[in-house]
Design brief:
The complex is a heterodimer of chains A (about 180) and B (about 475). Chain A is about 45% helix and about 10% strand. Chain A is of the alpha+beta class. Chain A folds into 2 domains: about 90 residues, Alpha-Beta Plaits (2-Layer Sandwich), CATH 3.30.70; about 70 residues. Chain B is mostly helical. Chain B has 18 helices and no strands. Classes of the chains: A alpha+beta (about 180), B mainly alpha (about 475).
Chain lengths: ~180, ~475
């Protein structure tokens, strides 16, 4: 088993996408793609499943809504009911309309921040981390496919030949 | 290839544009030396900001009696400035969130500077209620914290408390939205930086972003969901600000029309401020290829729409004040347009109701000088709108013996001018050290909306980007 990593470097997102389709049709598993911006249509080609981060955001939002409603019930109804201008606020239901704004805001607050934190943790991007993109120009105008030889049945030479059929700029092999 | 209609004007101009040219053009001001113009502007802005900070410190030292408030007019410039700044802070998130949901590609070139404007404007806005408290060190009392007063809580029925939640949520969510978009762009600067200090700084700012496929997939999902969350947030924030007035029983304030009217006014003034800033930025930083006349025109069209909504709202509340048959309500409005503050009412009417309609003329709305002048006119008009709503509604109350006038003191003026300076300092720092355009996002629309690619035939495209050797 070889533990070599092949990097195929392209200078265009469209060319990379078409090349990825070509390689996948040959049965090659593309481990990852590095690009300066999202390449639309790539995810199904390289077999990425849709992220579930939106579901997480919904759950965070619901937690926020429950906390807000629970908190206001405790503060305004249970712990210290105040008679403000004779407005009826001694039951939760009567007071509910004026709880709507803060419930909404707090739900959004929790959903947005919870999702942002989840996003940073799942991407493993946090302050102080070093960028691990293989080539610095992948954040500018280079598009790179990462193929691990041991992921595939084909040999290193075969994979390189298939990559060479596409309009690749450069092929780089690293021992990982 | 996804192509858009041929009659749509291109959003990225020039036949020489490539991915690396976009990077070079946007990062040139960050990677180059500090220019003389920037230093001059920064010096002026810092002096004004320091003057403002000095005024705020004086105010905190001697108390808000140093403002021109009196027993009748308890809210004046402070709240006017607060609402004005919050209103300006509405364009950024509207551009990046609402236009993202509607898949408007022209948002790409302006969302970053507009969001920066939003965040700094909300900072300025937040300052006013805090200093209006007088004892700013007690500002944390607005939060529902356990305390020693028998555990007395803040009043969740009060729109002022809703405002605390709305503004702080809006500020922090906008900041997160903005920063998540900035991370990949910081990574580009990090990977291009040569000197050790900038390399370290941008390395810290970019959180170790690599730009792999899964990260981009999450990025797009997060952007979409944040946009979905931020859209109702934008509308809720200024609705809640308007409820500070609308839920009171002051004639002139107690109207149900306020929430939509305030939101439209906020978007109106926000876009005007984006125009003011972008017209200078695109010129000075040579970004004319990315922020095109078409972008300016689109924003002017939004100014017509929101300006018209504002106009209808003004006329509606005027009509209803008469039609309601409530003496106090109708007097509040008669007093607005013919009382001692008539000039501010008519300044507001001219700037906000008449002037946006000049943009119906295509030649004018695509003229940069005209747009720039108009954007300032709208900003002035929207400041007067808040002044009219706040001061003219309270300066003559139910008891004629307590009628009075509001005159700003030098502290009032100093604090307001100071926030303009402080805002400029933040904005200049942003222009110098942050990528001004979301250039990695602009790259995604190059092929569908760039002048070079837009009307290229499929053969030419494949000749330019051959897939097979």
């Amino acid at each position: 088993m070889s533990d070599k990593t092949i990097y195929a470097i392209y200078d265009d997102d469209y060319v990379l996408l078409e090349s990825a389709k070509h390689l996948v049709s040959k049965g090659i598993y593309i481990r990852d793609v590095f690009s300066p911006f999202p390449i639309h249509g790539l995810d199904p080609v390289i077999g990425l499943e849709r992220t579930r981060i939106a579901i997480a955001a919904f759950i965070y939002g619901m937690i926020g809504v429950s906390l807000a409603l629970g908190g206001m019930y405790y503060f305004m109804i249970q712990d210290w009911p105040l008679n403000i201008g004779g407005k009826p606020n001694f039951t939760f239901v009567e007071n509910l309309p004026s709880f709507v704004p803060i419930t909404f805001e707090f739900g959004v607050l929790c959903a947005a921040h919870g999702m942002a934190i989840t996003y940073l943790l799942r991407n493993w991007t946090l302050p102080g981390f070093k960028g691990k993109n293989p080539y610095p120009r992948t954040t500018d105008d280079r598009f790179v496919m990462e193929i691990h030889v041991h992921d595939n049945d084909a040999s290193e030479e075969e994979i390189k030949n298939w990559i060479n059929e596409t309009h690749v700029l450069e092929i780089d092999v690293k021992n990982s | 290839m996804h192509k858009e209609a041929a009659i749509r004007e291109p959003l990225v101009l020039g036949n020489d544009v490539t991915y690396s040219k976009i990077t070079n053009d946007v990062l040139a001001p960050i990677e180059g030396k500090t220019t003389k113009g920037w230093k001059i502007l920064m010096t002026i802005a810092s002096i004004v900001a320091l003057w403002g900070i000095g005024n705020i410190l004086y105010l905190l030292g001697v108390g808000i009696g140093s403002w021109g408030l009196n027993k009748t007019v308890g809210w004046a410039w402070d709240i006017t400035n607060f609402v004005w700044w919050v209103g300006i802070g509405h364009a950024g998130t509207l551009i990046s969130a609402v236009l993202l949901l509607f898949r408007q590609k022209w948002r790409m070139a302006i969302n970053r500077p507009a969001e920066a404007m939003t965040i700094f404007a909300v900072f300025m806005a937040g300052l006013f209620p805090m200093i209006h408290m007088g004892r700013i060190w007690m500002a944390y009392w607005v939060l529902p914290l356990p305390n020693q007063f028998g555990s007395l809580w803040v009043n969740f029925n009060s729109p002022l408390l809703w405002d605390v939640f709305a503004i702080s949520t809006y500020l922090s969510v906008s900041l997160v939205f903005w920063y998540i978009g900035l991370i990949p762009d910081f990574a580009t600067i990090r990977d291009r930086a040569k000197k050790p200090v900038p390399k370290l700084m941008y390395s810290l700012l970019s959180f170790g972003w690599t730009g792999n496929a899964k990260a981009w997939q999450r990025f797009e999902e997060v952007s979409l969901v944040l946009a979905g969350l931020a859209t109702p947030l934008v509308f809720s924030v200024h609705s809640i600000v308007s409820m500070d007035f609308a839920t009171s029983v002051i004639p002139g304030w107690h109207t149900t029309i306020f929430p939509p009217y305030f939101v439209a006014g906020a978007v109106f003034s926000g876009f005007a401020m984006v125009q003011t800033l972008m017209l200078i930025v695109r010129k000075v930083m040579h970004l004319e290829q990315y922020v095109t006349i078409k972008h300016i025109e689109y924003m002017n069209i939004i100014i017509i729409v929101t300006g018209s909504i504002v106009g209808v709202a003004y006329l509606t509340e005027l009509f209803v004040s008469w039609y309601s048959g409530v003496e106090y309500e109708s007097y509040a409005f008669i007093n607005r347009f013919s009382g001692p503050y008539w000039w501010s009412y008519w300044a507001m009417m001219t700037c906000n109701v008449v002037s946006p309609h000049l943009f119906w003329v295509k030649k004018w709305r695509t003229n940069l000088t005209f747009t720039f002048i108009m954007s300032i006119v709208v900003n002035i008009g929207m400041w007067f709108e808040r002044f009219v709503i706040i001061v003219t509604s309270v300066h003559r109350d139910y008891v004629p013996s307590s009628w009075s006038m509001f005159y700003p003191t030098w502290v009032d003026i100093g604090v307001f001018i100071g926030t303009l300076g402080l805002f400029s300092v933040f904005y200049l720092l942003f222009l110098r050290y942050f990528p001004v355009l979301a250039f990695n996002e602009v790259k995604t629309i190059l092929k569908s909306s760039g002048e070079k690619y837009k009307n290229m035939s499929d053969e030419d495209f494949h000749k330019l980007h051959p897939v097979k050797k």
